[in-house]
Write the structure tokens for this entry.
Amino acid sequence: MSISLSDCSTSPWLVSNDFEVGTEFPLLAIKSVEMADVPTPGTTKKTRKAIIHFVGGSKGWAANMGCLREIGRALGITKNIDSKWIGARIALKIVGDVRRPDGTKGNAIRIARVEPATNAPAPTQLPADHAEMKEAK
């Protein structure tokens, strides 16, 4: 019997530690973006973050400002998250040894590439069980 550790994650967000460093996900279409209060690791505080939801996904991604800016630049939008984000496709990757705001180091989710929304064939959908994503490279 084998149980994936990521299956045990109770986080409502995509969490970098659920995946192996070097994992790159297929292009995923942005379904929606909303603001939410997200717990800050190692504290009792919550931080307001943009949560990106993907077509076919059950968990949102609490993107940091660097990733949001990178997506915005790639889409030609530098000031606001707007309707041009919906349908845009992004590929995420897991990187290791990243310095976190609390001073610790760990894994992080970063942008591998961004493609504007098009009338192209439907992008790969995020499996309902995000643990399956680590097999897709």
Notes: Residues 27 and 91 are 4 Å apart (CA to CA). Confidence is low (pLDDT under 50) at residues 120-124, 129-137. DSSP finds one helix and five strands in the chain.
